[in-house]
Structures are given as C-alpha cells and as structure tokens.
Design a protein that fits this description.
The structure is a single chain. The protein has 320 residues and is mainly β. The chain has one domain: 6 Propeller (Neuraminidase), CATH 2.120.10.30. Helices cover 14% and strands 43% of the residues. It has 2 helices and 24 strands. The strands form 6 sheets. Strands 3-2-1-24 form a 4-stranded antiparallel beta sheet, with no helix packed on it. A 4-stranded antiparallel beta sheet has the order 4-5-6-7, with no helix packed on it. Helix 1 packs antiparallel against helix 2.
C-alpha cells in the first residue's frame, strides 16, 4: 500500500511538472554585436540569453532557424574555415551546442520543417549553390534546387517552399510545381524571406527603396511593398497567429514589428547592438525543458518524504 501511494504521488507530480507549465511564442534572434543568440516575448519583454557565439570569426554570415517541436535553435556561423565555423544546434533553454557540419561548408539559407523532421539548407559554393533537404542532424540529404542566390523559407501547412533564384520562386516542399512569385533581376538586394502560411504570401526584405519589405502571392503575382523606407533588414519573421511582421535593424540596434499590411509600426526590442536574423519559436515552455526534470525530481523527493513520514506516524499510532 505504501509503495502504491508513493508511486501514484510521484507520477502525478511528474505529469504536472511537464504538462502543467504554460507555453508562449517567443522571438529568437542573433545579435552579431554582442555575439549572442537571445530571446524575448513577442512584445519584446523578458530578454534572455540562449547561447554565446564564438568571438574570433570574421565575415560572420549568421543565419538562424527554429525547430519548435523539439525546442531547438539551428544557426550557422561563417567566416574563415576553422573550429568556430559551421552549423550548430542548441536547446532554446540553453546548453552546449551540437556541431552538425564540417568547417568547409558555407551556408546562406536555413529552414526547419518541424512537422516533417527535416532541415533545409542552402549551401554556397564558388560556381553554384544548392538547396539540400536532410534529416535534422544534417546527415546525407537530397538536392532539391540548384543555382540558389539567397535564402529559403518553408511552410508545412501550406506545403510550400520559396527561395531566391531568378527572382523569388515557390513550389511545394519538394520544390516541384515551381512558379515565379516575383520576377526581378537584382536578387543580390534581398536580405531574408518568410512565408505566411495562413495568408498564402511570401515576404522578403530588400535593399531597394531605402530598404523595404515586400510581399507576393506564393502562387505568383500580387507584388506590393508593405514597409517602405525601413532600412535594410537581414532578418524578418512572421507571427501567423498574431498576424504580425517582425524585422531587424542592425544599424539602429532594434527589432520592429507591424501588422502584415505594414500598419501600426512599433519598436519592440530597442537597445541591441547589431541584430541580424530573427525567428519565432512556437510554444516555448515557461520553464525550459532542460530544467524541468530537476524541478520534477525535487518535487517527487519532497512529496515522498512527506508521505513516508505520515505513514510511519500512522503505523506508530496503530502499534501503541
């Protein structure tokens, strides 16, 4: 009887330690000036550090992607070949990063399909570049598209992927059925792109028009400027639930958001050094997964001690 009570109590406490904690979507970004990955609530409050990056890398070329299912951040640090360069993965709650690529691989695009458990990366070479899809450990992989000239964005719900090639081209998650969403010659002016899977649009940042953010239909056409004159942004993100667009401003050290039509512009994270790429992590636990087991075990231990003491007192009363 005593063992059964202790087991039931421990099981209930362990369940509530994991399931009972609240979750919320969070911004995650790279600050190249302070060499950190950081996160905050979507309104910019509660800024915390995720991981510190190497400080001895030139030509940083930093890009970021989020696996919301397993609560991990993927990031690439460029520069000269060496131990500090390569694709890394770290828990959003912090920890020691995993190294996933060789020191010679150079990336210019990165995206995670959390639902399918796949990683999309654009490799950069002297004569060509390719879009490769692999498992989440970046092992093996298949080439989906060649001669990519920028980043990549995917939407599992929309079964869509978009990348920079001859303009912005979009297809399904296998890059089949490709259409030209936006046709223009100077693709070198594009900073980042994201897909709004709810609205069916692809958004991208551009150096043109004093720095602007544009959008088009994933199915092609409908190109408009939603945020003109915002300065060049190397990172944009879309909150599909809150219907907000976020972008980084490395020269002013800010992360700004607006409605998806460009209205109601507001700075949500001021005072940064040099924010580059930004993403949104969905369903981040209020207590990081890395620390939740410790809390659960402590609760179990305290509860077990209390129950054991109570049972001993009850047994003593019966003997007397």
């Amino acid at each position: 009887m005593k063992s059964a009570v202790l087991f039931l109590s421990s099981w209930l406490l362990l369940t509530f330690a994991y399931v009972g904690q609240a979750t919320a979507d969070r911004l995650v970004w790279i600050d190249d000036g302070t060499r950190k990955i950081q996160s905050a609530a979507l309104d910019g409050s509660g800024v915390t550090d995720v991981v510190a990056l190497a400080t001895n890398v030139n030509n940083h070329h930093l890009i970021l992607a989020i696996d919301s299912t397993l609560q991990r951040a993927y990031y690439f640090v460029g520069g000269s070949p060496g131990p500090a360069r390569g694709l890394r993965r770290v828990p959003l709650g912090g920890g020691v990063p995993d190294s996933l690529s060789s020191e010679t691989e150079l990336l210019q695009g990165l995206a995670v399909d959390s639902a399918a458990g796949t990683l999309y990366r654009v490799t950069l070479a002297t004569l060509s570049s390719e879009l490769i899809r692999s498992d989440l450990d970046a092992a093996a992989g298949a080439t989906l598209w060649s001669y990519v000239n920028g980043g990549v964005a995917i939407s599992h719900d929309l079964d869509a992927s978009c990348l920079v090639s001859a303009g912005i081209v979009c297809g399904d998650l296998d890059m089949a059925g490709v259409v030209v969403a936006a046709d223009f010659a100077d693709t070198g002016t594009i900073g980042d792109l994201e897909i709004d899977g709810v609205g069916g649009h692809v958004y991208w940042s551009s150096q043109l028009e004093g720095g602007s953010i544009k959008r088009a239909n994933v199915s092609g056409g409908g190109v408009i400027t939603v945020a003109p004159g915002v300065g060049f942004s190397p990172g944009i993100a879309i909150d599909e639930v809150g219907r907000k667009l976020y972008w980084t401003s490395p020269f002013t050290g800010e992360i700004t958001r607006a409605n998806l039509d460009g209205s109601s512009v507001e700075v949500v994270v001021p005072g940064l050094s040099e924010p580059t790429d930004v993403e949104i992590a969905v369903g981040v636990p209020s207590v990081p997964l890395a620390t939740a087991p410790t809390r659960a075990l402590l609760a179990i231990a305290l509860s077990s001690l209390g129950l054991a003491a109570a049972l001993r007192r009850s047994a003593s009363r019966r003997i007397v």
